[in-house]
Design goal:
300 residues, 9 helices, alpha+beta, single chain, 34% helix, 3-stranded antiparallel sheet
Length: 300
């Protein structure tokens, strides 16, 4: 996440006015222009407003009031110091009560950790960091292995991103000169990588349609039409699958590990090669990206 953000910011800084820690408070679409009021007391007069705030967007209401489908699975992503015992593999530790601990190496010399748990209680993602750490300490207090290492790192100030898995399918992605992009418009689940791919594909198609059309509103409608097949091709994450992948009991964990062992063997790999397509078709020969020659010629 951090590396991708850095790449995008570095390649757009010269032409972009970034205003961090600022939110949209009001939108006035006047037909030919859009006046956007910001929380810092300033405003922006724009040709187009694109809202790409993510699944729990606070500004999506300016286009549609669609509700998020909360899947009840919480994620705490952290970056911790690399240990001499860390290897090159992604390690997944299951614990009873539908809890998991993940460790994987990154390309920056540190280790990425994830604590996940299923809960019927909603709203943990709205707590501040101190409240979220309290929930994590209570939830993983009896979990050994890597859990205590991750909790100790968080107590010592390790960077953390806390979220809840959810889905969203907005019936419309634009209203006048205001458009939705990425998870704010279409989100199959807030993990797994498909959302990032769809967001970048959506940005490409939105930019291409805007460059190819003289009418902004018509371009936004065309963007939605061209993007729909890509969102339809994304793998769907279901709540029951999350429960199966995160068993509550020791017997369930043993059964899951046995099933994964079979899937990782020769038979499982052969079946996967025949049936597993996932998101591989997106951007490939089956579902190629549209070409925008005019946009290519206009690049500086």
């Amino acid at each position: 996440r951090g590396e991708l953000s850095r790449i995008l910011v570095e390649r757009t800084t010269a032409d972009t006015d970034y205003r961090f820690d600022t939110q949209i408070t009001a939108v006035d679409d006047r037909g030919e222009r859009v006046d956007v009021a910001l929380s810092d007391g300033t405003s922006v007069d724009a040709d187009l407003l694109v809202i790409a705030e993510g699944l729990h967007s606070r500004s999506r209401r300016f286009v549609t009031p669609v509700e998020v489908n909360d899947l009840g699975m919480y994620f705490a992503y952290a970056t911790v110091a690399r240990s001499e015992h860390d290897d090159r593999w992604w390690n997944w530790q299951h614990a009873t009560g539908s809890r998991s601990v993940h460790l994987r190496p990154d390309n920056l010399g540190t280790t990425r950790a994830i604590l996940t748990f299923l809960s019927d209680v909603r709203g943990f993602e709205d707590l501040d960091r101190a409240g979220q750490l309290t929930i994590l300490r209570r939830t993983f207090a009896d979990v050994g292995g890597a859990a205590q290492r991750v909790l100790a790192a968080l107590d010592n100030g390790a960077p953390m991103y806390f979220s809840v898995a959810g889905q969203l399918r907005s019936p419309t992605w634009s209203k006048g000169r205001v458009a939705l992009l990425g998870d704010a418009a279409f989100c199959n689940a807030t993990f797994g990588g498909a959302g990032t791919s769809l967001a970048l594909i959506g940005a490409y198609i939105l930019a291409g349609e805007l460059s190819a059309a003289d009418d902004t509103v018509a371009a936004l409608q065309s963007y939605q039409h061209r993007m729909r097949p890509f969102t339809a091709a994304a793998p769907q994450v279901r709540a029951e699958v999350l429960r199966l992948a995160n068993p509550r009991t020791r017997a369930g964990i043993r059964l899951l590990h046995s099933a994964v062992g079979v899937a990782a063997g020769p038979v499982g790999k052969a079946v996967s090669a025949v049936t597993g397509r996932g998101l591989a078709a997106i951007g490939g020969d089956t579902l190629p990206l549209p070409d925008y020659p005019d946009a290519t010629r206009r690049r500086p």
